[in-house]
Design a protein that fits this description.
heterodimer, A: Cathepsin D, subunit A, domain 1, seven-stranded mixed beta sheet, 25 strands, 11% helix, B: 151 residues, alpha+beta, 7 strands
C-alpha cells in the first residue's frame, strides 16, 4: 500500500542520516544518534524536546535547555531551565519571573532612563522588557557582562505601540510556553548597526521609571547579544545535534555544541555548506519552484512551506496552522548548496489533528508541517520553506555567525551546514 | 526641501481623516505613510494598479498597491524590521489585531501567520531580521491581478 511504503521510506532516510551523524561524530566526544550519551566536553550543552516547562502547555517540536545567568563578576547566579533554543533569533530573553531573586543590573540610558528591548515575531507575538546584563554560562563557556532581555510587562506605563504593533505580549510562562528564549542564530546582535544609526527599527527604547518611552538608538556593543559571540573560545557558531524521531515520541534528546571547527567535536569536515544571502535566506526548490526566501529555524515547530494541494487543518480544530492531509504524504525538496549542488531532503506530512489526537501526550513529531504564507509563488513572487525543528531530527545542523571566523576553506559567515 | 515639507503638510491636512490609513485608503494615505516612515517613494504604473514602493532607512521596503479607482487594496513589506502596522493597516488594524490574539490563544508554538478573515487576508513569514508580510482585501483586488504579484 502506498502509505505504508511511504512511511518505511521515511524511516530509512532518517536511519541513514543517523548513521552519517555517527560516522562524523566518532572523531569527537559527542554523538548525535538516538543513543544519546550524557553530554561531555566543555562545549556541549544538553537539549530536550519535552513539551516545555509550563504546566498544562505541551509545546511540541521545541528544543529546550538550561542557562545559568549571574550578576556580572559575581557568584550570585541562577540556573533557568525550559529555555527555548532558537536558531531563528538572536539573544537571550528570560522571563523576569523566572529569576525572581536575581537582581541583574539593567542598562541605563541618559537622563535616568533605562534601555528597553522589543522583539516582534512573525506570528504577531512580541516580547518586551528591560535590557539587563549578566554573565551567561552554558556547559564550560561563559559570556561576560552580556546584554539580555528581561521579559516583563511594565508597571506604571504601557508597552509602546511601536513595539506591540497590535500583537500579543508573551510575558508569562503559560503564554510563552518557556522560561525564555535562547537565540543562537546567524547574527551577533538582535539588531546590529541599524539600531546604532537610527531609531526607526523600533527595537530599542529608553523609558523613565514610570514612562514615557521613546525609540532610541543604542551602541552595537550594548545590544542584546548572541551569547555565543561572547564566549572566549568556540564563539563562531553552534551545532544542533538532535536524535532521530520515528514518527512521534514522548520526548527527544540532543545537544548543542559550541564552536565550529574549534575542537575535535565540532569539525565541519564532511558537511555541506548552505550560504545565507544578504536578505537572510537561501533557496529551496519544491514542486519545481524556487522558494527564494527559505531558511532553517529550530524555533519553528514544524516544516512550513507553500503547497495549495495539501488540506489545511480547520481553524476550529486542535491543530490550526498545520496540514491535515487524509493520508500521510511523502514529499521531497532540494536545498541549494554553496557549490550550486542540490541536496534532496525527504520528509513526510502527517495529518496533524490525527497526530495530536492519537499522541496527545507526546512532544516530538517528525512529520508535522503546515503552510507558510502565500502559496502564490509564480511569476517571481518570493515564497519560502521554513525548515523547523523536525528537520533537525536525525541531523547535525551548523549555524555560523556573521562576522565571526570560519574554518579554513569555508565561505564567509553567515551560513548553515548539515 | 522646505517647499516639499510645506506641500506635504498641505496634503496631510487636506486628507487628515484618511491620512492614517494605507490599506483601504486613498492615494493621499500612501503619501502619509511615506512621510510617517520617512521613506523614499517610487511609483510603478501597470495596467490594473500603481505600485508604490517605500524604502525606509533601515532596509525594510513597504509596497502599497493602488487601484485605478484610487484605493489601496494591498500592502506588503519585506526586510529586517516591522514598520508601523497601525499606520499600514489603517482601519483594518483592529481586525488584524483581534485575529492575531485569537490565533495565539490556541496553543504554544511559533510558526508563520496565515489569516483568512472576512474581507482581509494576512500572511507573514520569515524570522528575526528576515521578514515578509502582506495583507490584501480580496474583494478589491482588480480583475486579472494575480495574488503572486502582491508581495
Amino acid at each position: 500500500m502506498r502509505t505504508d511504503r511511504i512511511m518505511r521510506r521515511g524511516v530509512a532516510a532518517l536511519a541513514m542520516a543517523s548513521a552519517f551523524g555517527l560516522l562524523v561524530a566518532c572523531g569527537g566526544g559527542g554523538s548525535s544518534t538516538s543513543q544519546q550519551p550524557p553530554p561531555t566536553g566543555n562545549n556541549v550543552q544538553a537539549l530536550t524536546v519535552n513539551g516545555g516547562p509550563a504546566a498544562g502547555v505541551d509545546y511540541i517540536d521545541a528544543a529546550f535547555t538550561s542557562v545559568t545567568v549571574c550578576v556580572p563578576g559575581s557568584s550570585n547566579c541562577a540556573t533557568v531551565d525550559g529555555v527555548l533554543v532558537d536558531t531563528g533569533s538572536v539573544g537571550l530573553r528570560l522571563l523576569a519571573s523566572a529569576i525572581p531573586s536575581l537582581n541583574l543590573p539593567q542598562l541605563a540610558g541618559s537622563g535616568g532612563t533605562t534601555y528597553y528591548n522589543c522583539v516582534d515575531f512573525v506570528d504577531g507575538t512580541y516580547l518586551w522588557g528591560p535590557v539587563a546584563q549578566a554573565d551567561i554560562e552554558m556547559a564550560g563557556e561563559k559570556a561576560s557582562s552580556a546584554s539580555l532581555q528581561l521579559i516583563e510587562n511594565p508597571t506604571g506605563f504601557s508597552v509602546p505601540t511601536a513595539c506591540s504593533q497590535g500583537g500579543v505580549n508573551e510575558d508569562t510562562l503559560s503564554a510563552l510556553g518557556a522560561n525564555g528564549i535562547l537565540g543562537v542564530g546567524n547574527y551577533p546582535q538582535d539588531c546590529g548597526p541599524a539600531c546604532q544609526s537610527s531609531t526607526s527599527p523600533d527595537v530599542y527604547f529608553t523609558c523613565g521609571a514610570s514612562g514615557p518611552c521613546s525609540s532610541s538608538t543604542i551602541m552595537v556593543a550594548q545590544q542584546v547579544t548572541n551569547p555565543v559571540v561572547g564566549f572566549a573560545t568556540d564563539n563562531n557558531g553552534v551545532i544542533i545535534e538532535m536524535a532521530a524521531v520515528d514518527g512521534e515520541s514522548a520526548t527527544a534528546s540532543g545537544q548543542m555544541v559550541f564552536g565550529i571547527g574549534t575542537q575535535s567535536n565540532n569539525s565541519l569536515s564532511g558537511y555541506t555548506v548552505y550560504p545565507i544571502n544578504s536578505n537572510g535566506f537561501f533557496t529551496t526548490t519544491f514542486n519545481s519552484q524556487d522558494l527564494t526566501e527559505s531558511f532553517i529555524d529550530s524555533g519553528s515547530n514544524g516544516y512550513f512551506f507553500p503547497d495549495a494541494s495539501i488540506t489545511q487543518c480547520s481553524g476550529g480544530s486542535i491543530a490550526p496552522g498545520f496540514y491535515c492531509p487524509a493520508n500521510p504524504v511523502s514529499l521531497s525538496a532540494q536545498n541549494k548548496a554553496e557549490s550550486g549542488a542540490e541536496n534532496t531532503v525527504n520528509f513526510t506530512v502527517d495529518n496533524a489533528v490525527n497526530d495530536f489526537n492519537s499522541f496527545g501526550a507526546d512532544a516530538a513529531f517528525a512529520n508535522l508541517a503546515g503552510p507558510n504564507g502565500s502559496t502564490d509563488c509564480g511569476g517571481g513572487s518570493p515564497c519560502g520553506f521554513d525548515w523547523g525543528l523536525p528537520f533537525f531530527f536525525g541531523r547535525n545542523v551548523f549555524v555560523s555567525i556573521d562576522g565571526q571566523p570560519v574554518p579554513s576553506g569555508a565561505p564567509a559567515a553567515p551560513w548553515w551546514a548539515y | 526641501m522646505k517647499s516639499l515639507i510645506v506641500s506635504l503638510a498641505v496634503v496631510v491636512s487636506l486628507f487628515s481623516a484618511k491620512s492614517y490609513a494605507a490599506l483601504g485608503g486613498d492615494a493621499a494615505s500612501v503619501e502619509a505613510d511615506r512621510a510617517h516612515m520617512n521613506a523614499q517613494r517610487q511609483a510603478t504604473q501597470s495596467a490594473a494598479y500603481t505600485l508604490h514602493e517605500l524604502k525606509t532607512d533601515n532596509g525594510t521596503v513597504v509596497r502599497e498597491y493602488l487601484s485605478a479607482s484610487g484605493s489601496v487594496f494591498a500592502v506588503a513589506w519585506q526586510g529586517p524590521f516591522v514598520p508601523d502596522m497601525q499606520q499600514l493597516l489603517g482601519s483594518y488594524f483592529e481586525q488584524y489585531s483581534n485575529a492575531v490574539k485569537a490565533n495565539k490563544e490556541v496553543r504554544a508554538g511559533r510558526h508563520p501567520l496565515d489569516l483568512q478573515l472576512p474581507g482581509l487576508v494576512v500572511q507573514s513569514s520569515g524570522y528575526m531580521r528576515a521578514r515578509h508580510f502582506r495583507a490584501y482585501i480580496p474583494q478589491q483586488v482588480p480583475a486579472g491581478v494575480k495574488k503572486a504579484e502582491l508581495q
